[in-house]
Amino acid sequence: FEDNLFQYNISSEKLKNNTFYSCLKIISKTHNISYTNSSVLSYLPYLIDNMPLSVFIKDCNNDFRYIYRNNSFNQIISRGKFDCLGKTDYECMPPQTADKFREEDEKLLREEGAIKFKTKERGLDGKVAIKETLKSLVKIGRDRLIFGIVWDITELTLTSEKLKEAKEIAEESVSIKTAMLANISHEIRTPLNSII
Question: How many separate helices (H) and strands (E) can be counted in the chain?
Fold first, then answer.
């Protein structure tokens, strides 16, 4: 994923003890510099808080309460940065949405690992946005946290649908052309057969 200044590579790998190792690599487009784990630590809070990906962390040991949300995630639900910190989904979102998120969180807690899913949401402007979410369970000592990343795939989905429609139209056009050529070939052969 990238923006005008940086390319962000986020990878996650499941380790033998059912924990996850995540790595963030940031590549500057303007200075041809790659920042790795050690050099990026001083920039990490700023980068995570201001990246266009929505990031959140929930505490599984405390009723799935939010302990971190970046600026992009806060814009999704139109709340102030610290409004939902320390609160559950039920205190921040409509009950139907909160029920869905709680169900996913409990499933993740039972199965341990990561889950990925898509949702359609209507924003305050009335437009429908399609979001993809990746949640993973992270264990740090006795603490169990859900680390989540959400990104908007509306444009990608719409482009994919348009390409699918264009492909169907092209395939229909080819089949019509094939039928027409077969018909013309038959029309040309029929008079020639009577002449011969």
Answer: 6, 8
